[in-house]
Design goal:
The complex is a heterodimer of chains A (215) and B (77). By secondary structure, chain A is α+β, with helices and mostly antiparallel strands. Chain A has helices at 7-40, 96-128, 135-170, 185-212; strands at 47-56, 64-66, 81-83, 85-93, 177-178. The longest helix of chain A has 36 residues, at 135-170. Chain B has a single domain (3-65), classed as lambda repressor-like DNA-binding domains (434 Repressor (Amino-terminal Domain)). Chain B is built from 5 helices and 2 strands. Chain B has a two-stranded antiparallel ribbon. Classes of the chains: A alpha+beta (215), B mainly alpha (77). The A-B interface holds A 209-210, 213-215 and B 27, 31-32, 34-35, 39-44, 47, 77.
Amino acid sequence: MKNPKLISAHIVKVYLDICLVLVPVFLCFLLVWTLVSPLVMSADSVFTDATIPVTVGESSVFPVLSLAARGTEVEGITNLNLVRARGELRFDTTSWGLHLTTILPLLIGGLLVMWVIFLVRQVVASVLLGDAFTLKNAARLRLVGLIMLVGGTIGPLLEYVHAGMVLARIGTHAIPLSPPLTFPTEVILVGLLMLALSTVFGHGKELEDEKSLTI
Amino acid sequence: MAIYVNLDLMLVKRKMSLTELSQRIGITLANLSILKTNKAKAVRFSTLEALCRELDCQPGDLLEYSPTEEFGGDSST
C-alpha cells in the first residue's frame, strides 16, 4: 500500500465495491421476479410477505391507542395508552398489482441508494488517486446531498400516501392502523452535511489551484 | 491580473534559455513556463530571489504593473 494514511479510504472503497455488486444483483432479482411472477405463477397463487409500514392508532404523526377502552383496566391505573407504536403490516395477496405497489418503494429506494453509493465510490476513488479537490467531486457531493434531502423528505410523503392507499384498500380490523409519517432526521442531516462538504470541496479546489499556480 | 512578469525579456537580455534557467534555479520548466506566460497567481520570495540571483537583476526588473492591461488567463482573482 503506497500511503498508509489512506488505509481507511481503501477499506471504504472495497466496502462500496461490494455494495455496488450486491445491491444491483438484489434489485435485478427483485425486479425480474416481480415482472415475471404473474406469467409463471398460476391464477390462484399467493404473493407472500407484502409489507407496508403502519402506525397503531388513529394519528399518523403521534399515534395513540387507548388500551383502557379495550377492557384492560388495572386497579390503580386510571389510563392506559399505547403511543407511537410503529411496525410493518405483512400480508399475503393474490393481487399482483397490490404486490407491485409494495415492491416499488423498495426498488426506487434501492436505485437511489445505488446512485449514492456509486457517487461516493467515485469520490473515494479520486481521493485514492490524490485528486480529491476537484469541481467534479464538489458536484458529486452536492448531488449526493440533494438525493438524500429529496429522498429524506419526499420519500416519507410518498410512503405515507402509498401506505394510506393500501390501508384504505385492505381496511383495518380490530386495531386501528394509520399510515406513518416520519421524516428520517439522520438522512436529512447527512444530506445537509454533504451539501456543506461540497462547498468545502469547491473551496479546496480554489486553494489547490492557487497552490499549484504559486511558483 | 495587471502584474506582468518580464521573464522573457530578461532571458533575451541575458541570452539564456528557459531550460538553462530552470536547471540553474531548480524550478521545473513547466513552472517557469507558467511564470513566463503570466498564468501564475503568486510568486514565492525564494523563487524571486533565485531568479534575481541567476539573471543578475532586481525584482522590479522582472515585475511590471500595468493597471490598464490584463495579463494571463484568469483575471478573477
